[in-house]
Amino acid sequence: GESVGLHLPTLSVQEGDNSIINCAYSNSASDYFIWYKQESGKGPQFIIDIRSNMDKRQGQRVTVLLNKTVKHLSLQIAATQPGDSAVYFCAENEAGNQFYFGTGTSLTVIP
Amino acid sequence: KAGVTQTPRYLIKTRGQQVTLSCSPISGHRSVSWYQQTPGQGLQFLFEYFSETQRNKGNFPGRFSGRQFSNSRSEMNVSTLELGDSALYLCASSLISYNEQFFGPGTRLTVL
Prior knowledge:
The complex is a heterodimer.
Chain A: E1 10-14, E2 19-24, E3 32-38, E4 45-51, E5 56-58, E6 62-67, E7 72-77, E8 86-93, E9 99-101, E10 105-110
Parallel strand pairs in A: 1-10
Antiparallel strand pairs in A: 2-7, 3-4, 3-8, 5-6, 6-7, 8-9, 8-10
Chain B: E1 5-7, E2 10-13, E3 19-24, E4 31-38, E5 42-50, E6 53-57, E7 64-68, E8 74-78, E9 87-94, E10 102-103, E11 107-111
Parallel strand pairs in B: 2-11
Antiparallel strand pairs in B: 1-3, 3-8, 4-5, 4-9, 5-6, 7-8, 9-10, 9-11
């Protein structure tokens, strides 16, 4: 059959505003999650991770929230900068198994 | 500490040929995973090696194979290349399996 390309959700924010990127994961047994940032022509860059025994974790300008009840993960970026423009995607892992990656969200920061 | 390195960065091959890609993990990391990234399918898991043993394999045909050496460096091989094998091939390393996985820049393979 005909292959269909991935349609990435897009998010546009003004420079200086906060960004929230969402991810719905599929496996209720997943216990480890990572957010990655991928700029054009580069490999994914590790941003922040969280384990299922936590519901919030903060890094530098980033916060990850985990809601296991609805299998939802979010990445909050504070004071978004032009350099934050990239594709962001989440990865889920159930101990001992492979990572599964979301399709990603394309973030564009408007100067 | 140096990051994950992959060679070559770019490769052009023709259908039917075979190709070998190389990955050097972060020093001390023993787990290496390989992924294929395409616009149509996103990031797809190929296989994972830990201490020279393949621990997991994704849903790819047998034309895709890999190995890991005693120094944790890894290679993947694709035989009898098809047009659909054109993709960015990414290697990721972690200290132990599936934990804080860090990616290399990838090898862009184009099959003509």
